[in-house]
Structures are given as structure tokens and as C-alpha cells.
UniProtKB/TrEMBL annotation:
It comes from the Bacteria. This is Copper chaperone PCu(A)C. Keywords: Signal. It holds the Pfam family PCuAC.
Length: 192
């Protein structure tokens, strides 16, 4: 799908979403809601072609409403590892703030959003219980060493060249499915 077609699709979904305010809770059917918010599924153009494009290190950019999601990747893991890390970039081109509330993946028992920052010359990490703010007109990057995604209880360690599907839940934009490619593990930090 071309960027122009994605932009037109996003504009159409924005109009539909403006009149749909309810989001289904985990496990709840959208049929029970009077005005369900839409779920959008987007994948990189190389999905299903890993053997041809194993050099890809970031998910293809996608636009949904006022958000553009790009630059996504997760790091490959050692055999037996149960925790993996990754990130992506969210650009908000709109005039209203949004918030990344949750991330889910069938590849992990849970996905958490974390923040690393220096406090008194010590690097500390904390889980972001309230998600990540995506201010209007701003770009927020989740990557190692700052805001990032932690995949907990990983079912099968991520291997370079694989892909990891995720569902991003935004406060205003709703749910967006995205595919993160797995790249080489370089640097970063460990979780035990």
C-alpha cells in the first residue's frame, strides 16, 4: 500500500473515529459497545518476505490519524532468555496530545513501557504505569537508554531477521497493529 493510500485510509478512519468513542476492554467483544472505536492493522511492506529483506532494521512508517509510527525494532535475544527490549518512533502531527497507554504482543506474556534516566550519577530504570505522552507537534522515540519497550515472559527468544507483532493502544487514536523487525543485539541493558 502506498503512503498516499495509507494517508487517505488514515483520514477516513479519523472521520469514523471522531464519532466512535468507546474502546473494548481486554477480552470484551466490540459488539457489546454502542459506539466502538476502530482497530487498525498495519504491517511493514516486508512482512512475509524476511528471506529477501533480512537487512531491514526498522518497521516501515505507517500513518493513522495524526500519528506516524516508524523506526521500530526489537533486539535479538540469547537462547533461553525471557526478556527482550525494543522501541519505535511516534510522531504526532496533530494539534491534540495523545498517549501510548499499552502495548501487547502474542510473542510475550506482557509488554511494559520503561524509562531510563540518570539520578545522582546513577542510571535508574522505572516502569511507566501511565504510559507515554505523545504531545501535539512532537516526536517521541522509544529506544535503549531512554524510553523503551520491555517484552516480558517472551515465549520464544527473538532471532535476528524475525518479526514481532505488537498492538499499540493510544488514548485518542485507539489500537494500531504494527510489526517490529528483529535486529542484532548491540549494547543496551539487562533485566533479570
Amino acid at each position: 500500500m502506498t503512503k498516499t493510500k495509507l494517508t487517505l485510509l488514515a483520514a477516513s478512519l479519523t472521520l469514523v473515529a471522531a464519532s466512535m468513542a468507546q474502546m473494548a476492554a481486554a477480552g470484551q467483544s466490540t459488539h457489546a459497545l454502542k459506539s466502538p472505536a476502530p482497530t487498525v492493522t498495519l504491517a511493514s511492506s516486508t512482512q512475509g518476505h524476511d528471506e529477501h529483506d533480512s537487512h531491514q532494521t526498522a518497521g516501515a512508517p505507517v500513518e493513522v490519524g495524526d500519528l506516524e509510527i516508524s523506526g521500530g525494532a526489537v533486539k535479538s535475544m540469547l537462547p533461553g532468555a525471557k526478556v527482550g527490549g525494543g522501541g519505535l518512533v511516534v510522531k504526532n502531527t496533530g494539534s491534540a496530545d495523545d498517549r501510548l497507554l499499552a502495548v501487547e504482543s502474542p510473542a510475550a506474556g506482557r509488554v511494559e513501557m520503561h524509562e531510563m534516566k540518570m539520578e545522582n550519577d546513577v542510571m535508574k530504570m522505572r516502569r511507566l504505569e501511565d504510559g507515554v505522552a505523545i504531545p501535539a507537534g512532537a516526536t517521541v522515540e522509544l529506544k535503549s537508554g531512554g524510553l523503551h519497550l520491555m517484552f516480558m515472559e517472551v515465549k520464544k527468544p527473538f532471532a535476528e531477521g524475525d518479526t514481532v507483532p505488537v498492538t499499540l493502544t493510544f488514548e485518542k487514536t485507539g489500537k494500531v497493529d504494527y510489526v517490529l523487525p528483529v535486529g542484532a543485539a548491540v549494547g543496551g541493558h539487562e533485566h533479570n
